[in-house]
Design brief:
The protein is of the alpha+beta class. 28% of the residues lie in helices and 34% in strands. The radius of gyration is 16 Å and the shape is globular. The structure holds coenzyme A (COA).
């Protein structure tokens, strides 16, 4: 992928690469235990958020980039992080994820972001299949995937190690043909 990839825009959200100046805004939600309740990571220390941003901010320099961790921006304010990445370039498989600041939950922003990630994943990354996993208790995230057209494929037993405890994940996927007429 070129160094000057352009990202899709939703009706309300835009997406951009992270920069070092984003650390404080991102730490606001990555350090929130309510936000990380169903995640394998967090609540973050400032060092962990800094490492995440350092890593994400360097990614756009990679000419063979296959992972896009992006800031979701609403009216100029950073409200969350979203990501889509290629997991297998031969099979054209990818995965996506999302985390929003708690102040912005319940307004359809995650669903809007997922729809933009799908467009980017299918049209720009040329993926054929995009999957997502989430904690079985993460009803909000499950609802986002359902609303975005994902199908439930099953329950991955003992899939993740979360703060020292193994737990299952729900596996969802969506195919190019599910969203783009053939
Ligand atoms: C999951 C998350 C991204 C959802 O963001 P959001 O912008 O609120 O999502 P949306 O508004 O697009 O949709 C959320 C849906 O879940 C529903 N929902 C949320 N919590 C719910 C709950 N506890 N019970 C039932 N429904 C719930 C909402 O009502 C909405 O559905 P609706 O439109 O049919 O009413 C957000 O809560 C978040 O960032 N959580 C922490 C990080 C995380 O869990 N990321 C996903 C990891 S797999």
């Amino acid at each position: 992928m070129s160094l000057s990839t352009s990202y899709p825009r939703g009706p309300r959200l835009s997406f951009r690469d992270f920069k070092t100046a984003d650390i404080a805004d991102v730490h606001d939600y990555t350090s929130d235990p309510e936000v990380t309740r169903w995640s394998t990571w967090g609540p973050n220390t400032l060092e962990q958020t800094t490492a995440f941003i350092d890593n994400a901010a360097r990614a756009h320099l990679d000419a063979d980039r296959s992972a896009y961790s992006l800031a979701a921006v609403l009216d100029g304010r950073l409200i969350g992080s979203v990501a889509v990445w290629t997991t297998d370039s031969h099979d054209r498989n990818g995965e996506l994820g999302y985390t929003l600041h708690r102040a912005y939950w319940g307004n359809g922003y995650a669903t809007e972001a997922v729809n933009q990630l799908l467009e980017f994943g299918f049209n720009t990354l040329h993926l054929e299949r995009i999957s997502a996993t989430c904690h079985p208790g993460n009803i909000g995230s499950i609802r986002v995937l359902e609303k975005s057209g994902f199908s439930l494929e099953g329950r991955l037993r003992s899939h993740r190690l979360e703060r020292g405890v193994r737990r299952d994940s729900m596996l969802y996927s969506i195919l190019r043909e599910d969203v783009i007429p053939q």
